[in-house]
Structure formats: C-alpha cells, structure tokens
C-alpha cells in the first residue's frame, strides 16, 4: 500500500517489527503506553486485529466500536484512545 507523507506514518500497515505504525519516537512511546496501561486484557488483541492488513473495513469499524464500548462500560479511557488509533 502507498505511504502518505503526513500523520506520523499512520498510513503504513503494522508489521511485526513496527506494530504501532509510526516513525515518530514520541508518538510510538505514547501509543505503547496507551496499550500497555490499559487494565482490560482484550484491548491489545482488539488493536492487533483492527490494524491487521487482513482486517476488512467493516471488521475494523466493529473493533473500534467494541473498544469504545469497553470505555463506556468500564471507564477504561485507554480503550477509547486505542479505538482512535484503529480508525486511523
């Protein structure tokens, strides 16, 4: 897939070596802390599924919806922030 010049490289698909999809070290640290600090154990697997290159657009929307539901039901604000990362 083509890469765009803006947004910290968020248009790049995640890889095993770069699962957070960013070239900016500060943004990478921010994203990692969002994922690592979540108290809900399903946030990371949903992030991985939603950012997979095999994930269809409808499945990506479902993952973001589930992450937002986790935030609404548990108060885990990191889940909402991760939903935004999935939608990028």
Automatic annotation (TrEMBL):
<feature type="region of interest" description="Disordered">
    <location>
        <begin position="1"/>
        <end position="23"/>
    </location>
</feature>
<feature type="compositionally biased region" description="Gly residues">
    <location>
        <begin position="1"/>
        <end position="10"/>
    </location>
</feature>
<protein>
    <submittedName>
        <fullName>Uncharacterized protein</fullName>
    </submittedName>
</protein>
